[in-house]
DNA sequence: CTTGATGCAAAACGTTTGCAAGTTT
DNA sequence: AAACTTGCAAACGTTTTGCATCAAG
């Protein structure tokens, strides 16, 4: 299993940081989300499994994970920062109804963009990263009486 | 002149909000920037022309402008929110050296993306807006001994 | 004159910090 | 045992709020 405790532990140790219980819990939990939660949401969820973990530890841990490139920060129009288990280049879908951020996989679009910038460069600007965010509304399809 | 006091006043009144001195000052000042300043930066600059304007008013005014679609919010990896005079779809360049955000005009890329999504849609997701941000480093070209 | 905007100071919010006590290696 | 991590509570920086005063329509 990809995100087993053992695997999580190894990721942490591989990054050269101690595999403490709060870290394992937070990093593992994050790996299970399809959306990208805030520190507060992680705190709520982690607390269920590991009661006593403080919010400060959530923040400190997330910062360590980000510094060690195990996790990515995601900013939003909202106040709070979100965290993403994935650190590779991908597209984010922002649902304006639920405020949830999810991933969108589209290698074709990735290619389109990167090919475009191979031929065209921006004057006096060295491109390090191209970020694409798609805002919109997720449709929650019901099996019966489909609202769409 | 595009961004004259008169023109600014009309924009405010056209949006149905009172054209007060702080609003005129803030909105006009914002129109003159090539980058996208924070509330604090606007406060510093506005204060020079209109001493006595409070930071709270800057925030309240910006919120009103955003609500009335005269100004756009821009989020960054940093703590603070930035504000953009332009409300039409365009690309942002984030300079990682100076933390400045500037506009990048590329109708060709805009077309490329919008054409792409005409043929391809995202399952269960209604696209409202596509945002492209380019992170990188602005090169400050010297006249002689060009570093590039 | 009516309505809505301003300024002030206080509060709120997410996030960070210092430090003593506790864990991991 | 050494080095690092944790929890707590207090501090932080940005943004918001309540309310009395003031300005715009």
**CATH architectural name of chain A:** Orthogonal Bundle
Largest interface, by Cβ-Cβ below 8 angstroms: which chains and how many residues each? A-B, 33 and 33 residues
Oligomer kind: homodimer
Kindly report the name of the CATH homologous superfamily of chain A: Winged helix-like DNA-binding domain superfamily/Winged helix DNA-binding domain
- Which topology of chain A does CATH recognise? Arc Repressor Mutant, subunit A
**Termini Cα gap of chain A:** 37 Å
How many domains, in number, for the residues of chain A? 1
Uncertain parts of chain A: none
CATH class of chain A: Mainly Alpha
Mean pLDDT of chain A: 91
Which percent range describes the beta-strand content of chain A?
15-25%
Overall spatial form of chain A: globular
Helix count, DSSP H or I runs of 4 or more residues of chain A: 5
Order of helices and strands of chain A: HHHHEEEEHE
- Share of helix among residues of chain A? 25-40%
Whole-angstrom Rg of chain A: 18 Å
The main pleated sheet of chain A reads as:
3 strands, mixed
């Amino acid at each position: 299993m990809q995100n087993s405790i053992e695997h999580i532990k190894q990721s942490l140790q591989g990054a050269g940081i101690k595999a403490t219980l709060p870290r394992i819990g937070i990093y593992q939990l994050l790996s299970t989300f399809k959306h990208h939660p805030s520190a507060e949401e992680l705190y709520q969820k982690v607390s269920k499994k590991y009661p006593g973990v403080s919010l400060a530890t959530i923040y400190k841990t997330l910062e360590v994970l980000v510094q060690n490139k195990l996790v990515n920060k995601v900013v939003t129009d909202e106040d709070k920062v979100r965290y993403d288990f994935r650190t590779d280049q991908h597209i984010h879908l922002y649902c304006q109804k639920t405020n949830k951020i999810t991933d969108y996989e589209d290698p074709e679009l990735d290619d389109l963009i990167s090919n475009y910038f191979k031929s065209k460069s921006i004057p006096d600007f060295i491109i390090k990263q191209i970020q694409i965010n798609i805002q919109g509304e997720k449709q929650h399809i019901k099996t019966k009486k489909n609202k769409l």
